[in-house]
Amino acid sequence: MPIENIHVTNSVFTAREGGLLSESKGIELRNVTIRPDEGPAMTVNNVTDASLTDCSFISEPSVVYTGTNKNVK
Fold first, then answer.
1. In the prediction, which pLDDT does 49 show?
2. Could you give the angle at the alpha carbon of 17 between the alpha carbons of 14 and 23, nearest 5°?
3. 24 burial class (0-12, 13-18, 19+ CB within 10 angstroms)?
């Protein structure tokens, strides 16, 4: 089921794998750091109206975009 209207601020995440935003709308990450042990820090798939502001994605590649994303900044 799609998630909507999630706001995360001033947070640090360390995990084995990075985050996945999929089939989402109205997501805001502000001043968020993601440090995965492997893979991209964030995968964005079929997301609408998302804002990733002042974020640090510590990996290579940092963000991977798949599917159809609209208005992702």
1. 96
2. 110
3. buried
